[in-house]
Amino acid sequence: MKRIPRPSALLMAATLATAGIAANYAWAQVDAAKSSVTATARQIGVPMEGKFKKFDATVAFDPAKLATSSAKVEIDVSSFEIGDAETTKEVKGRDWFDAAKYPKAVFQSTSIKAGAAGKYEVAGKLTIKGKTQDVVIPASYRQDAGGQVFEGVLPIKRTVYNIGDGEWKDTSVVADDVQIKFRIVTLAKK
C-alpha cells in the first residue's frame, strides 16, 4: 500500500505563488528568513501543513500606484517539505507535483486593487503542474521598520491543478480544498 502524501505539500506551490505581492518600488529584496509559504490540507480529516523552502519573487508595489504595481513569484516545488522524508519524496513524484517535469509553480499578477477592510485584491495567473488558472488573492499590507510585510491566504482546489493524479483523485482521503498561506517580507534597497 502506498503512503498517502500530505495535501499541504501539494498546494504549497500555489501558496508561494500567492506571495507575489511583496515589494514597494523602493523595496525590492525579499527577506527569505522572515518570509514563508505554507499549504494546509486535510488528510482523513486531519489538517496537515507543509512548507516550500525555496522561492523567488520579483515585485513592485506602491499603494499610491496600484495600476503600475506587479508581482511574479516562482516556487521551487522540489523544495517542499512536509516533515516526513518518505511522504516528501512521494509528493514530489509524478502523481503529485511531478517536480522533475514541472519544477516550478508560478504566480504572475495581472492587476492589484484596493479591497475591503484595508486589504488588497491581487488578480493573476497561477500555474502549477502545467495548469494555469485565474485567481484573486486577498492580501494585507503594512510597513515595518526595515521593509514591508504582505500576508494572506489563497484557497485552491488541488484537483484543478492535477495534484493527486491516478488513485489520489479520490478526495475522500486527501481533501480537495487547500489553504495556501503566505507571509512575504521585503527589505529596503540599499
Report on the architecture of this protein.
This protein has 190 residues and is mainly beta. It has one domain: Lipid/polyisoprenoid-binding, YceI-like (Lipocalin). 11% of the residues lie in helices and 49% in strands. Strands 1, 2, 3, 4, 5, 6, 7, 8, 9, 10 and 11 form an eleven-stranded antiparallel sheet that branches. The N terminus is likely disordered.
- First-last Cα distance: 54 Å
Radius of gyration: 16 Å
Q: Which structural category fits the helices and strands?
A: mainly beta
**What is the averaged pLDDT score?**
82
Second CATH tier, the architecture = Beta Barrel
Q: What's the CATH first level?
A: Mainly Beta
Quaternary status: single chain
Give the name of the CATH superfamily: Lipid/polyisoprenoid-binding, YceI-like
Element-by-element helix/strand order: HEEEEEEHEEEEE
InterPro entries: Lipid/polyisoprenoid-bd_YceI, TTHA0802/YceI-like_sf
Keywords: Signal
Organism: Cupriavidus basilensis
Protein name: Putative signal peptide protein
Brief overview:
This protein has 190 residues and is mostly beta strands. It has a single domain, classed as Lipid/polyisoprenoid-binding, YceI-like (Lipocalin, Beta Barrel). It is 11% helix and 49% strand.
Could you give the topology of this structure?
Blueprint: H1 7-18, E1 27-30, E2 36-43, E3 46-52, E4 55-60, E5 70-76, E6 80-81, H2 85-92, E7 104-114, E8 120-128, E9 131-144, E10 147-157, E11 174-188
Antiparallel strand pairs: 1-11, 2-3, 2-11, 3-6, 4-5, 5-7, 7-8, 8-9, 9-10, 10-11
